[in-house]
Structures are given as C-alpha cells and as structure tokens.
Amino acid sequence: MHGRNPKVEKSEMSRDDADGKVVGFLPGQTIQMFETPGEGEPDPEMREALINRIQGNDINLLAQQINRWANEQFPGRTRSGMFLKLYSEIGELVDAKPEDEAMEMADIFIMLLDYAAIKGTDLGWAIRAKMDINMKREWMKTPAGNWRHVK
Q: Whole-angstrom distance between the N-terminal and C-terminal Cα of the chain?
C-alpha cells in the first residue's frame, strides 16, 4: 500500500515509483492500482479505469460543492430560472473580451454542475459516455460554419 494516509482532503493521483503502482486518492478513501501479475507495470486498462474514476469523482464532488453553495445562496431556484441564467451567461461569454472568457466559461460550467447535482446526474460518466458516442460519429461543416453530426 502507498505510504500515505487514506483519509485525504483532496483528490490527487500519483505514481509510486518505489513499487511501480499507480495510486489514486479521493476524499475519504484510497484506491490502489495493482500491477499486472509478473510484469511489474500497471495494467493499462486498470490504469485507464482508475483515471476515469478519479476524474469522474472530481467533477461530481465539485458539482456537489457548488450545489451546496447554490442551495444557500439561491434557495427555491427553479429549472426555468436556472436556464434563463445559463442563457445570460452564454451571452456574456459571446460578448466577453479574451481576458474575461475564462471566468465566463466558469460561470456556465458552475451552472451546469449545479443543475447536474440537482438532477442527480453522474456527470463524469455522462461526459465520457457522450464522448464515446461523438468519437464514433461522422461530422460535417454546415454552410453557416458550424459542425453537426451526420450519423
């Protein structure tokens, strides 16, 4: 086992060079990647599964934190009110100066994460699943200049 306290405060990932294992830490728990028997290197499929689990949990934990804050700040918010705010944030991003774009993107992401938490959506899983679908699709550029899938 990795020589760290399994009850950590934040998520992180590291490779323990001493024994060749990849170890992932999540708040309150430890996940350890075991070596492929006899090879001394982490199993690539297990490593990918661990990375996906950690990344998914990070986004879901962030959604829960945002939702707790939003519940205190905006009690009684409605779905329609949230979407109106989201639309206004998208408009702010469209009109933003380049140096302000990151904060406007963050506002949009915060709104989406709050909504995902309200709906109980496992956003980490949903993003990976949707990317799997998108990566298998064929895409074409429309005359307007945007892209859409054809299959």
A: 47
* pTM tops 0.85: no
Identify whether the C-beta of residue 69 lies closer than 8 Å to the C-beta of residue 54: no
Domain that holds residue 46: 1-73
Asked whether residue 100 is assigned to any structural domain, the reply reads: no
Domain count, the chain: 1
Provide the pairing of β-strand 147-149 with 139-141. Answer: antiparallel
The reply to whether 56 falls in a domain is yes
Span 84-139, pLDDT tens digits: 999 999 999 999 999 999 999 999 999 999 999 999 998 888 988 999 999 999 99
Token pair for residue 12?
């992180």
Name the DSSP letter for residue 32: E
